[in-house]
Amino acid sequence: MASAKRRWDLTMGKQSPVGRTSSSRRYFLIAVMLFFFGCLSIYTGKIVTDRHWCSRRLGKRAWLISGRIIDAVVVARILNATLVIPELDHHSFWKDNSDFADIFDVKWFTSSLSRDVTVVKKIPDKVMRSMEKPPYTTRVPRKSAPEYYLDEVLPILRRRHVVQLTKFDFRLANNLDEDSQKLRCHVNYHALRFTRSIQELGQKVVEKMREMSPRFIAVHLRFEPDMLAFSGCYYGGGDKERRELGAIRDRWKTLPDIDADGERSRGKCPLTPHEVGLMLRGLGFGNDSYLYIASGEIYEGNETLQPLRDLFPNMYTKEMLAEIELEPFRTHSSRLAAIDYIVCDESDVFVTNNNGNMARVLAGQRRYMGHKRTIRPNSKKLSSLFKARNQMNWETFSRKVKFHQRGFMGEPEEMRPGRGEFHEFPYACICRKPTNDSSTGAIFNIIDEPKIMGLK
Protein backbone atom coordinates (compact mmCIF):
# COMPACT_ATOMS: atom_id res chain seq x y z
CA MET A 1 0.00 0.00 0.00
CA ALA A 2 1.43 3.34 -0.97
CA SER A 3 2.37 5.67 1.84
CA ALA A 4 -0.22 8.21 0.69
CA LYS A 5 -2.95 5.66 1.24
CA ARG A 6 -1.87 5.18 4.83
CA ARG A 7 -2.66 8.75 5.81
CA TRP A 8 -5.92 8.97 7.67
CA ASP A 9 -8.15 11.95 8.32
CA LEU A 10 -9.20 12.01 11.99
CA THR A 11 -10.76 15.45 12.10
CA MET A 12 -14.38 14.35 11.90
CA GLY A 13 -14.25 11.45 14.34
CA LYS A 14 -14.57 8.80 11.60
CA GLN A 15 -11.65 7.79 9.42
CA SER A 16 -11.35 7.74 5.67
CA PRO A 17 -8.29 7.24 3.48
CA VAL A 18 -6.96 10.55 2.22
CA GLY A 19 -7.89 11.13 -1.39
CA ARG A 20 -11.06 9.00 -1.28
CA THR A 21 -14.63 10.20 -1.14
CA SER A 22 -16.78 9.34 1.82
CA SER A 23 -19.09 7.28 -0.41
CA SER A 24 -16.23 4.97 -1.29
CA ARG A 25 -15.30 4.20 2.32
CA ARG A 26 -14.99 0.57 3.23
CA TYR A 27 -16.74 -0.27 6.50
CA PHE A 28 -15.87 -3.39 8.39
CA LEU A 29 -17.07 -5.04 11.55
CA ILE A 30 -14.90 -6.03 14.47
CA ALA A 31 -16.04 -8.49 17.11
CA VAL A 32 -13.96 -8.58 20.25
CA MET A 33 -13.50 -11.36 22.74
CA LEU A 34 -11.25 -10.04 25.48
CA PHE A 35 -9.62 -12.65 27.66
CA PHE A 36 -6.42 -12.69 29.67
CA PHE A 37 -5.10 -13.56 26.23
CA GLY A 38 -7.91 -12.08 24.19
CA CYS A 39 -8.85 -12.46 20.58
CA LEU A 40 -10.29 -10.01 18.13
CA SER A 41 -12.08 -10.74 14.86
CA ILE A 42 -12.36 -8.38 11.94
CA TYR A 43 -14.80 -9.05 9.19
CA THR A 44 -17.03 -7.65 6.49
CA GLY A 45 -19.94 -9.24 4.67
CA LYS A 46 -20.15 -12.75 6.12
CA ILE A 47 -19.92 -12.70 9.90
CA VAL A 48 -19.40 -15.08 12.79
CA THR A 49 -19.34 -14.47 16.50
CA ASP A 50 -16.06 -15.18 18.26
CA ARG A 51 -17.44 -17.52 20.88
CA HIS A 52 -17.74 -20.30 18.29
CA TRP A 53 -14.06 -20.11 17.47
CA CYS A 54 -12.19 -18.90 20.57
CA SER A 55 -11.46 -20.48 23.91
CA ARG A 56 -9.10 -18.29 25.93
CA ARG A 57 -8.68 -17.44 29.57
CA LEU A 58 -10.27 -14.33 31.02
CA GLY A 59 -8.09 -12.56 33.55
CA LYS A 60 -9.43 -12.27 37.06
CA ARG A 61 -9.20 -8.51 37.14
CA ALA A 62 -11.56 -6.08 35.46
CA TRP A 63 -8.62 -3.80 34.60
CA LEU A 64 -7.05 -6.57 32.51
CA ILE A 65 -10.10 -6.37 30.29
CA SER A 66 -9.97 -2.60 29.94
CA GLY A 67 -6.50 -2.46 28.38
CA ARG A 68 -7.56 -4.80 25.57
CA ILE A 69 -10.76 -2.88 24.97
CA ILE A 70 -8.88 0.40 24.71
CA ASP A 71 -6.58 -0.88 21.99
CA ALA A 72 -9.43 -2.70 20.24
CA VAL A 73 -11.29 0.60 19.88
CA VAL A 74 -8.20 2.27 18.43
CA VAL A 75 -7.67 -0.60 15.97
CA ALA A 76 -11.33 -0.32 14.97
CA ARG A 77 -10.76 3.33 14.17
CA ILE A 78 -7.56 2.64 12.24
CA LEU A 79 -9.42 0.11 10.07
CA ASN A 80 -12.58 2.21 9.86
CA ALA A 81 -14.51 -0.51 11.67
CA THR A 82 -17.52 -1.14 13.85
CA LEU A 83 -16.94 -2.65 17.29
CA VAL A 84 -19.15 -5.40 18.67
CA ILE A 85 -19.58 -5.52 22.45
CA PRO A 86 -17.20 -8.19 23.81
CA GLU A 87 -18.33 -11.59 24.99
CA LEU A 88 -16.20 -13.00 27.80
CA ASP A 89 -15.06 -16.56 28.38
CA HIS A 90 -16.92 -18.33 31.20
CA HIS A 91 -14.61 -21.34 31.41
CA SER A 92 -11.45 -19.65 32.58
CA PHE A 93 -9.25 -20.43 35.55
CA TRP A 94 -11.37 -18.09 37.67
CA LYS A 95 -14.78 -19.61 36.79
CA ASP A 96 -16.44 -16.21 36.55
CA ASN A 97 -19.56 -16.14 34.36
CA SER A 98 -19.67 -12.33 34.20
CA ASP A 99 -20.29 -10.79 30.79
CA PHE A 100 -19.08 -7.39 29.63
CA ALA A 101 -22.46 -5.87 30.48
CA ASP A 102 -22.22 -7.23 34.04
CA ILE A 103 -19.07 -5.19 34.62
CA PHE A 104 -19.33 -2.13 32.37
CA ASP A 105 -22.14 0.25 31.46
CA VAL A 106 -22.78 -0.76 27.85
CA LYS A 107 -25.14 2.10 27.01
CA TRP A 108 -22.65 4.66 28.26
CA PHE A 109 -19.78 2.93 26.45
CA THR A 110 -21.68 2.95 23.16
CA SER A 111 -22.87 6.55 23.34
CA SER A 112 -19.50 7.88 24.53
CA LEU A 113 -17.74 6.48 21.47
CA SER A 114 -20.41 7.42 18.93
CA ARG A 115 -18.28 10.20 17.40
CA ASP A 116 -15.21 7.97 17.09
CA VAL A 117 -16.21 4.34 16.55
CA THR A 118 -19.59 2.75 15.94
CA VAL A 119 -20.38 0.16 18.61
CA VAL A 120 -23.14 -2.45 18.33
CA LYS A 121 -24.38 -4.99 20.87
CA LYS A 122 -24.46 -7.96 18.51
CA ILE A 123 -24.24 -9.02 14.91
CA PRO A 124 -27.57 -9.60 13.11
CA ASP A 125 -28.64 -13.25 13.27
CA LYS A 126 -29.23 -13.53 9.53
CA VAL A 127 -25.67 -12.42 8.87
CA MET A 128 -24.27 -14.87 11.40
CA ARG A 129 -26.19 -17.73 9.75
CA SER A 130 -24.62 -16.89 6.42
CA MET A 131 -21.15 -17.68 7.73
CA GLU A 132 -19.81 -20.68 5.79
CA LYS A 133 -16.47 -21.33 7.50
CA PRO A 134 -14.34 -20.09 10.38
CA PRO A 135 -12.58 -16.76 9.94
CA TYR A 136 -9.06 -16.43 8.67
CA THR A 137 -6.87 -16.54 11.77
CA THR A 138 -3.61 -14.70 12.34
CA ARG A 139 -1.69 -13.24 15.25
CA VAL A 140 -0.47 -9.68 15.10
CA PRO A 141 3.04 -9.13 16.54
CA ARG A 142 3.20 -7.45 19.91
CA LYS A 143 3.14 -3.64 19.87
CA SER A 144 2.42 -3.42 16.14
CA ALA A 145 2.28 0.02 14.56
CA PRO A 146 -0.87 1.23 12.77
CA GLU A 147 0.97 0.74 9.46
CA TYR A 148 1.15 -2.98 10.16
CA TYR A 149 -2.63 -3.20 10.45
CA LEU A 150 -3.06 -1.22 7.23
CA ASP A 151 -0.39 -3.11 5.28
CA GLU A 152 -0.90 -6.65 6.59
CA VAL A 153 -4.38 -6.98 8.09
CA LEU A 154 -6.44 -4.76 5.83
CA PRO A 155 -5.52 -6.55 2.55
CA ILE A 156 -6.41 -9.92 4.09
CA LEU A 157 -9.63 -8.46 5.37
CA ARG A 158 -10.57 -7.22 1.92
CA ARG A 159 -9.66 -10.52 0.32
CA ARG A 160 -11.13 -12.94 2.86
CA HIS A 161 -13.84 -10.72 4.39
CA VAL A 162 -13.17 -12.37 7.77
CA VAL A 163 -9.98 -12.10 9.81
CA GLN A 164 -9.46 -13.24 13.36
CA LEU A 165 -6.61 -11.75 15.39
CA THR A 166 -5.77 -14.13 18.23
CA LYS A 167 -4.23 -13.32 21.61
CA PHE A 168 -5.04 -9.64 21.37
CA ASP A 169 -2.93 -8.50 24.31
CA PHE A 170 -0.50 -5.62 23.82
CA ARG A 171 -0.85 -5.91 20.04
CA LEU A 172 -0.83 -2.17 19.41
CA ALA A 173 2.21 0.07 19.67
CA ASN A 174 2.73 2.14 22.80
CA ASN A 175 3.62 5.28 20.84
CA LEU A 176 0.87 6.40 18.46
CA ASP A 177 -0.10 9.71 16.91
CA GLU A 178 -1.64 12.24 19.27
CA ASP A 179 -5.21 11.69 18.06
CA SER A 180 -4.98 7.94 18.70
CA GLN A 181 -3.46 8.50 22.14
CA LYS A 182 -6.28 10.87 23.02
CA LEU A 183 -8.78 8.25 21.86
CA ARG A 184 -7.11 5.80 24.24
CA CYS A 185 -7.65 8.27 27.07
CA HIS A 186 -11.25 8.88 26.04
CA VAL A 187 -11.98 5.15 26.11
CA ASN A 188 -10.12 4.47 29.33
CA TYR A 189 -11.12 7.44 31.45
CA HIS A 190 -14.53 8.36 30.06
CA ALA A 191 -16.17 5.64 27.95
CA LEU A 192 -15.43 2.69 30.24
CA ARG A 193 -17.62 3.04 33.31
CA PHE A 194 -18.62 0.34 35.77
CA THR A 195 -22.25 -0.64 36.10
CA ARG A 196 -24.38 1.27 38.59
CA SER A 197 -24.47 -1.62 41.08
CA ILE A 198 -20.68 -1.91 41.11
CA GLN A 199 -20.18 1.85 41.25
CA GLU A 200 -22.65 2.32 44.11
CA LEU A 201 -21.16 -0.47 46.21
CA GLY A 202 -17.63 0.77 45.55
CA GLN A 203 -18.59 4.27 46.66
CA LYS A 204 -20.29 2.85 49.74
CA VAL A 205 -17.05 1.15 50.77
CA VAL A 206 -15.18 4.43 50.18
CA GLU A 207 -17.69 6.31 52.34
CA LYS A 208 -17.25 3.81 55.17
CA MET A 209 -13.49 4.31 55.04
CA ARG A 210 -13.98 8.09 55.08
CA GLU A 211 -16.30 7.86 58.08
CA MET A 212 -13.46 6.32 60.06
CA SER A 213 -10.72 8.58 58.71
CA PRO A 214 -10.71 11.51 56.28
CA ARG A 215 -7.63 10.02 54.60
CA PHE A 216 -6.68 6.42 53.96
CA ILE A 217 -4.14 4.26 52.15
CA ALA A 218 -5.20 1.55 49.70
CA VAL A 219 -2.80 -1.37 49.33
CA HIS A 220 -3.02 -3.82 46.45
CA LEU A 221 -1.21 -6.72 48.09
CA ARG A 222 -1.28 -9.13 45.12
CA PHE A 223 -0.27 -12.01 47.38
CA GLU A 224 -2.76 -14.56 46.11
CA PRO A 225 -1.58 -18.14 45.42
CA ASP A 226 -1.79 -17.71 41.63
CA MET A 227 0.42 -14.62 41.72
CA LEU A 228 3.05 -16.29 43.88
CA ALA A 229 2.99 -19.41 41.72
CA PHE A 230 3.30 -17.39 38.52
CA SER A 231 6.21 -15.39 39.92
CA GLY A 232 8.09 -18.56 40.86
CA CYS A 233 9.24 -16.93 44.10
CA TYR A 234 9.84 -18.69 47.41
CA TYR A 235 8.85 -17.23 50.80
CA GLY A 236 10.27 -19.71 53.28
CA GLY A 237 7.28 -22.03 53.64
CA GLY A 238 9.28 -25.20 53.11
CA ASP A 239 8.12 -28.24 51.18
CA LYS A 240 4.46 -27.38 51.75
CA GLU A 241 4.80 -24.04 49.96
CA ARG A 242 6.87 -25.52 47.13
CA ARG A 243 4.34 -28.32 46.63
CA GLU A 244 1.24 -26.11 46.71
CA LEU A 245 2.55 -23.28 44.56
CA GLY A 246 4.33 -25.71 42.25
CA ALA A 247 1.04 -27.47 41.51
CA ILE A 248 -0.53 -24.15 40.53
CA ARG A 249 2.48 -23.13 38.45
CA ASP A 250 2.27 -26.39 36.50
CA ARG A 251 -1.01 -25.15 34.99
CA TRP A 252 1.03 -22.72 32.89
CA LYS A 253 2.85 -25.18 30.67
CA THR A 254 5.07 -22.57 29.02
CA LEU A 255 6.60 -21.10 32.18
CA PRO A 256 10.33 -21.81 32.45
CA ASP A 257 12.17 -23.09 35.50
CA ILE A 258 13.61 -20.14 37.40
CA ASP A 259 15.87 -19.47 40.36
CA ALA A 260 13.51 -18.35 43.14
CA ASP A 261 16.25 -16.72 45.21
CA GLY A 262 17.61 -14.97 42.15
CA GLU A 263 14.19 -13.60 41.26
CA ARG A 264 13.85 -12.12 44.72
CA SER A 265 17.25 -10.44 44.64
CA ARG A 266 16.38 -8.99 41.21
CA GLY A 267 13.21 -7.46 42.61
CA LYS A 268 10.85 -9.69 40.63
CA CYS A 269 8.90 -10.98 43.62
CA PRO A 270 5.96 -9.34 45.41
CA LEU A 271 6.75 -8.19 48.93
CA THR A 272 5.09 -10.11 51.74
CA PRO A 273 2.30 -8.27 53.60
CA HIS A 274 4.72 -7.87 56.51
CA GLU A 275 7.33 -6.30 54.23
CA VAL A 276 4.75 -3.92 52.78
CA GLY A 277 3.93 -2.83 56.32
CA LEU A 278 7.60 -2.35 57.19
CA MET A 279 8.09 -0.25 54.07
CA LEU A 280 5.14 2.00 54.94
CA ARG A 281 6.25 2.42 58.56
CA GLY A 282 9.78 3.11 57.36
CA LEU A 283 8.42 5.83 55.07
CA GLY A 284 6.81 7.53 58.05
CA PHE A 285 3.20 6.32 58.06
CA GLY A 286 2.12 5.87 61.68
CA ASN A 287 0.27 2.92 63.16
CA ASP A 288 -2.82 5.11 63.38
CA SER A 289 -3.06 5.22 59.56
CA TYR A 290 -6.08 3.54 57.99
CA LEU A 291 -5.39 0.87 55.39
CA TYR A 292 -7.74 -0.62 52.83
CA ILE A 293 -6.52 -3.99 51.56
CA ALA A 294 -7.46 -4.75 47.95
CA SER A 295 -6.90 -8.41 47.39
CA GLY A 296 -8.33 -11.77 46.60
CA GLU A 297 -7.63 -14.80 48.75
CA ILE A 298 -4.27 -14.22 50.46
CA TYR A 299 -1.92 -17.20 50.52
CA GLU A 300 -2.07 -18.71 54.02
CA GLY A 301 -4.80 -16.21 54.94
CA ASN A 302 -4.82 -14.56 58.36
CA GLU A 303 -1.47 -16.05 59.30
CA THR A 304 0.15 -14.08 56.47
CA LEU A 305 -1.84 -10.91 57.16
CA GLN A 306 -1.32 -10.77 60.93
CA PRO A 307 2.15 -9.11 60.85
CA LEU A 308 0.70 -6.33 58.67
CA ARG A 309 -2.27 -5.96 61.02
CA ASP A 310 0.12 -5.68 63.98
CA LEU A 311 1.82 -2.74 62.26
CA PHE A 312 -1.47 -1.14 61.13
CA PRO A 313 -4.38 -2.16 63.39
CA ASN A 314 -6.82 -0.01 61.38
CA MET A 315 -6.82 -2.38 58.42
CA TYR A 316 -9.98 -3.16 56.47
CA THR A 317 -11.19 -5.09 53.44
CA LYS A 318 -14.38 -4.83 51.39
CA GLU A 319 -15.62 -7.99 53.11
CA MET A 320 -15.25 -6.32 56.51
CA LEU A 321 -17.03 -3.15 55.39
CA ALA A 322 -19.87 -4.52 53.25
CA GLU A 323 -20.30 -8.21 54.03
CA ILE A 324 -24.05 -8.37 53.34
CA GLU A 325 -23.97 -6.11 50.27
CA LEU A 326 -21.22 -8.22 48.72
CA GLU A 327 -23.24 -11.43 48.81
CA PRO A 328 -24.50 -11.15 45.18
CA PHE A 329 -20.89 -10.64 44.03
CA ARG A 330 -19.30 -13.55 45.89
CA THR A 331 -18.88 -15.84 42.88
CA HIS A 332 -17.89 -13.07 40.47
CA SER A 333 -14.21 -12.30 40.90
CA SER A 334 -14.15 -9.64 38.18
CA ARG A 335 -16.92 -7.64 39.85
CA LEU A 336 -15.20 -7.92 43.23
CA ALA A 337 -12.02 -6.68 41.59
CA ALA A 338 -13.91 -3.72 40.13
CA ILE A 339 -14.99 -2.70 43.64
CA ASP A 340 -11.37 -2.84 44.79
CA TYR A 341 -10.43 -0.73 41.78
CA ILE A 342 -12.91 2.00 42.75
CA VAL A 343 -11.68 2.15 46.34
CA CYS A 344 -8.03 2.19 45.29
CA ASP A 345 -8.71 5.00 42.84
CA GLU A 346 -10.46 7.06 45.53
CA SER A 347 -7.72 6.53 48.12
CA ASP A 348 -5.36 9.32 49.16
CA VAL A 349 -2.37 7.03 48.69
CA PHE A 350 -2.32 3.91 46.52
CA VAL A 351 0.37 1.31 47.19
CA THR A 352 0.91 -1.40 44.61
CA ASN A 353 2.85 -4.55 45.39
CA ASN A 354 3.10 -5.59 41.75
CA ASN A 355 3.68 -3.37 38.72
CA GLY A 356 1.09 -5.19 36.64
CA ASN A 357 -1.95 -4.11 34.68
CA MET A 358 -3.90 -2.72 37.63
CA ALA A 359 -0.97 -0.73 38.93
CA ARG A 360 -0.24 0.86 35.56
CA VAL A 361 -3.85 1.64 34.67
CA LEU A 362 -4.60 3.04 38.12
CA ALA A 363 -1.43 5.11 38.19
CA GLY A 364 -2.36 6.59 34.83
CA GLN A 365 -5.91 7.32 35.92
CA ARG A 366 -4.75 8.97 39.14
CA ARG A 367 -2.44 11.18 37.06
CA TYR A 368 -5.07 12.00 34.48
CA MET A 369 -7.87 12.81 36.91
CA GLY A 370 -5.69 15.01 39.13
CA HIS A 371 -2.48 13.88 40.72
CA LYS A 372 -2.75 11.46 43.64
CA ARG A 373 0.12 9.52 45.12
CA THR A 374 0.92 6.03 43.82
CA ILE A 375 3.76 4.21 45.61
CA ARG A 376 5.66 1.31 44.04
CA PRO A 377 8.15 -0.64 46.15
CA ASN A 378 11.72 -0.59 44.91
CA SER A 379 11.73 -4.35 45.39
CA LYS A 380 15.27 -4.90 44.19
CA LYS A 381 16.77 -2.60 46.83
CA LEU A 382 14.27 -3.37 49.56
CA SER A 383 14.79 -7.12 49.27
CA SER A 384 18.37 -6.93 50.51
CA LEU A 385 17.38 -4.34 53.12
CA PHE A 386 14.71 -6.61 54.61
CA LYS A 387 17.21 -9.44 54.90
CA ALA A 388 19.52 -7.21 56.95
CA ARG A 389 16.88 -5.34 58.98
CA ASN A 390 17.73 -7.14 62.24
CA GLN A 391 21.30 -5.87 61.95
CA MET A 392 20.36 -2.18 62.27
CA ASN A 393 18.23 0.02 64.49
CA TRP A 394 14.88 1.42 63.37
CA GLU A 395 16.21 4.89 62.56
CA THR A 396 18.81 3.43 60.20
CA PHE A 397 16.27 1.13 58.60
CA SER A 398 13.78 3.96 58.05
CA ARG A 399 16.45 6.21 56.58
CA LYS A 400 17.46 3.52 54.09
CA VAL A 401 13.84 2.80 53.12
CA LYS A 402 13.30 6.47 52.32
CA PHE A 403 16.54 6.57 50.35
CA HIS A 404 15.74 3.47 48.28
CA GLN A 405 12.20 4.69 47.58
CA ARG A 406 13.32 7.89 45.90
CA GLY A 407 11.76 7.89 42.46
CA PHE A 408 9.21 5.25 43.47
CA MET A 409 6.88 7.51 45.46
CA GLY A 410 4.67 8.67 42.61
CA GLU A 411 6.04 12.19 42.51
CA PRO A 412 4.87 14.37 39.63
CA GLU A 413 7.51 14.19 36.94
CA GLU A 414 8.34 15.55 33.54
CA MET A 415 7.73 13.14 30.69
CA ARG A 416 8.90 13.36 27.11
CA PRO A 417 6.64 11.88 24.41
CA GLY A 418 7.42 8.24 23.75
CA ARG A 419 8.81 7.49 27.21
CA GLY A 420 6.99 5.27 29.64
CA GLU A 421 4.06 2.93 29.12
CA PHE A 422 1.15 5.03 27.90
CA HIS A 423 -1.51 3.59 30.21
CA GLU A 424 0.71 4.58 33.15
CA PHE A 425 1.83 7.91 31.68
CA PRO A 426 -1.00 9.32 29.52
CA TYR A 427 1.10 12.33 28.57
CA ALA A 428 -0.82 13.20 25.39
CA CYS A 429 -3.93 13.83 27.48
CA ILE A 430 -2.36 15.93 30.26
CA CYS A 431 -1.11 19.51 30.28
CA ARG A 432 1.92 20.57 28.26
CA LYS A 433 4.85 22.56 29.51
CA PRO A 434 6.44 24.83 26.87
CA THR A 435 10.11 24.26 26.15
CA ASN A 436 12.62 26.31 24.19
CA ASP A 437 14.38 23.21 22.93
CA SER A 438 12.35 22.28 19.87
CA SER A 439 14.64 19.36 19.10
CA THR A 440 13.47 17.43 22.13
CA GLY A 441 9.75 17.87 21.53
CA ALA A 442 7.17 18.79 24.11
CA ILE A 443 7.66 18.04 27.77
CA PHE A 444 4.61 17.04 29.77
CA ASN A 445 4.27 17.95 33.41
CA ILE A 446 1.68 16.83 35.92
CA ILE A 447 0.23 19.25 38.47
CA ASP A 448 2.09 20.30 41.59
CA GLU A 449 2.85 17.55 44.04
CA PRO A 450 0.54 17.34 47.04
CA LYS A 451 1.72 16.26 50.47
CA ILE A 452 0.80 12.70 51.30
CA MET A 453 -1.02 12.41 54.58
CA GLY A 454 1.42 14.67 56.36
CA LEU A 455 4.46 12.89 54.95
CA LYS A 456 6.83 15.39 53.28
Automatic annotation (TrEMBL):
This is O-fucosyltransferase family protein. Keywords: Carbohydrate metabolism, Fucose metabolism, Glycosyltransferase, Membrane, Transferase, Transmembrane, Transmembrane helix. The chain crosses the membrane at residues 27-45. Belongs to the glycosyltransferase GT106 family. PANTHER family: O-FUCOSYLTRANSFERASE 16, O-FUCOSYLTRANSFERASE 29. GO terms for molecular function: glycosyltransferase activity. The keyword Transmembrane applies. GO terms for biological process: fucose metabolic process. It comes from the Eukaryota. The keyword Membrane applies. InterPro entries: FucosylTrfase_pln (IPR024709), GDP-Fuc_O-FucTrfase (IPR019378).
